[in-house]
Amino acid sequence: MFHCIQLDDRIRQVLWRSAQSQSAAFVGAVYCLPKKPHFCVACGCRLYCAGSNGRFDLFAFHPHQDGKTSGKSMAMSDSAQLHVRPLRAKDRAEWAEMWTDYLAFYKTTLPQEIYDSSFARMLGDDPRDFNGLVAEKGGRLLGLTHFVYHRNGWKIEDVCYLQDLYTRPEARGAGVGRALIEAVYNIADRDGAPSVYWMTQDFNETARKLYDRIGVLTPFIKYQRP
């Protein structure tokens, strides 16, 4: 049995036919940059990739040891309709609900004016303001990310800081966080930003399992004014 990881929505049907012809388990959509390690979102194994359109690897297969589709693989198959898109005005209620839960994880609360200003900035057209993306499936928002470009004294180009990333508890393990981060990667590439970086707590072990697959741990430690 094989897992098939789709890496480009434009060839969805081609991949689906390939999966069927090879008795493969179709898992879901994952965007990966070429020449980077790819890992199966169903079981975490390294993938064998085949084909490239110059920007994304097109698809990948790998053997699945148990010879059948696992329950987690079935859940990933259902995530094929996951759509990452820019934040919209109509998303305010669901966005606020998710951001509140995200802040609660970090034992933080913010006043209403911060919600108002942050949401308005992300909907604005100032390139120096924060940008917002959401992951949507079946009309329901399952995750969010906020990112911003800023100057860097060691580079000519702006760099990209990914400040917030959140997935609803019921959607975790289904590729939502990965899809959001890789959407930021793609936008940063489009805008010519040579670096995307983020921070997390060192004991956030669940999130770091994903980050270790799609990012590189740096040796830097954050300090701030007391």
Counted up, domains total 2
Q: How do the strands line up in the largest sheet?
A: 5-6-7-8-9
Helix and strand pattern: EHEEEHEHHEEEHEH
Quickly give the structural class. alpha+beta
CATH class of the largest domain: Alpha Beta
Q: How can the largest sheet be summarized?
A: 5 strands, mixed
Low-confidence stretches: 1-38, 40-80
For the CA atoms, what is the radius of gyration? 18 Å
Q: Shape, please?
A: globular
Q: Can you say what the CATH homologous superfamily of the largest domain is? A: Gcn5-related N-acetyltransferase (GNAT)
Classify the helix fraction into a percent range.
Answer: 25-40%
Query: In total, how many beta strands?
Result: 9
CATH architecture of the largest domain, by name, is 3-Layer(aba) Sandwich
The number of helices is 6
- Distance separating the two termini: 55 Å
Strand portion = 15-25%
Q: Give the overall average pLDDT.
A: 76
Instruction: Kindly identify the CATH topology of the largest domain.
Output: Aminopeptidase
What do these coordinates show?
This protein is of the alpha+beta class and 226 residues long. It has two domains: 2-80, no CATH class; 83-214, Gcn5-related N-acetyltransferase (GNAT) (Aminopeptidase). Helix content is 30%, strand content 25%. The protein contains six helices and nine strands; from the N terminus they run E-H-E-E-E-H-E-H-H-E-E-E-H-E-H. The protein has helices at residues 12-21, 71-77, 92-105, 112-123, 176-190, 205-214; strands at 2-6, 24-29, 48-52, 57-63, 83-86, 131-137, 140-150, 159-167, 196-197. Strands 5-6-7-8-9 form a five-stranded mixed beta sheet, sandwiched between helices. It is globular and about 40 Å long. Residues 1-38 and 40-80 have low confidence and may be disordered.
